[in-house]
Design goal:
Pfam families: HMBD (PF19335), SCO1-SenC (PF02630). This is SCO family protein. Belongs to the SCO1/2 family. With 237 residues, this protein is an alpha+beta fold. It has two domains: 68 residues, no CATH class; 157 residues, Glutaredoxin (3-Layer(aba) Sandwich). Helices cover 33% and strands 24% of the residues. The protein is built from seven helices and eleven strands. Strands 4-3-7-6-5-10-11 form a seven-stranded mixed beta sheet, sandwiched between helices. It has a two-stranded antiparallel ribbon with strand order 1-2. A two-stranded antiparallel sheet has the order 8-9. Helix 5 links the parallel strand 6 and strand 7. The chain is elongated, with a radius of gyration of 24 Å. The relative contact order is 0.14. Bound molecules: copper (II) ion (CU). The site of copper (II) ion (CU) has 6 residues, from helix 3. The site of copper (II) ion has 6 residues, from helix 3.
């Protein structure tokens, strides 16, 4: 009887442990791995419980950031956690995580804007022009439309052409209304429709590292962009 009790207890523990493990992986970016308590093989970790091949002691469970275990994983702060879909000016549909691997310089604009956006676009071009050419290939300059109903991929493509921003380093994105709002919240960009064709909006250029983590923001129009350029150069190989 005592024996049976033990088995039931062990079974429940395993179940609890399993579900806990799954939760951890999806929620806070940590995973359980196993390590020899004597560190016979230094910091070597195993994905499953068992015993150390050297001292045969039971491996102990340790928690580690998934980022350390798996380079493909993204941190909680990454903009790549957003699952919304975006149409590129070329017509291809992507999720933001597909931009992973390059420094991202992002700004929210809309193509029919006659006031601030042309200046924000000029600021983006000015920043791009000051980055050494060998770094530019590791950077994506991304314009996200805050007016996805008007800014279709065709419109964005025409806008890119008109502004001589049709090189590979430039990307224009049309999202869904909710996807754009969610993205703006991440960037702390505020915008509001003030007439059917006009929006008031923040003027913020954001720099993300190749893992999608925000590293710098510049606010304003025609402001000194020295710090922005420095931050881009710093995180770009
Ligand atoms: Cu504008």
């Amino acid at each position: 009887m005592q024996h049976l009790k033990y088995i039931v207890f062990a079974f429940i523990t395993v179940l609890a442990f399993q579900s806990c493990k799954t939760d951890k992986k999806s929620n806070d970016g940590t995973v359980e791995v196993y390590q020899c308590p004597m560190e016979c093989e230094g910091n070597k970790t195993y994905n499953e419980a068992g015993s150390c091949p050297i001292c045969h002691m039971d491996l102990k469970a340790v928690e580690t950031s998934s980022k350390l275990v798996n380079d493909d994983a993204i941190s909680e702060e990454s903009v790549f956690n957003l699952t919304s879909h975006w149409n590129m000016e070329e017509g291809k549909t992507i999720q933001l995580k597909e931009l992973k691997g390059k420094t991202l310089v992002m700004v929210m604009i809309y193509t029919s804007c006659k006031a601030a956006c042309p200046r924000l676009v000029a600021d983006m071009r000015n920043i791009e022009a000051q980055i050494p050419a060998e770094k530019v290939k590791n950077i994506q300059f991304v314009m996200v439309s805050i007016d996805p109903e008007t800014d279709t991929p065709e419109k964005l493509k025409a806008f890119a052409k008109e502004n001589a921003m049709d090189g590979d380093q430039w990307t224009f994105l049309q999202g869904s209304v909710s996807g754009v709002r969610e993205f703006a919240n991440v960037l702390s960009v505020k915008y509001k429709e003030i007439s059917p064709i006009d929006f008031s909006h923040s003027n913020i250029i954001s720099v993300f590292n190749a893992q999608g983590e925000l590293v710098h923001q510049q606010e304003g129009l025609g402001v000194d962009n020295k710090e922005t350029i420095e931050s881009i150069i710093k995180v770009t190989p």
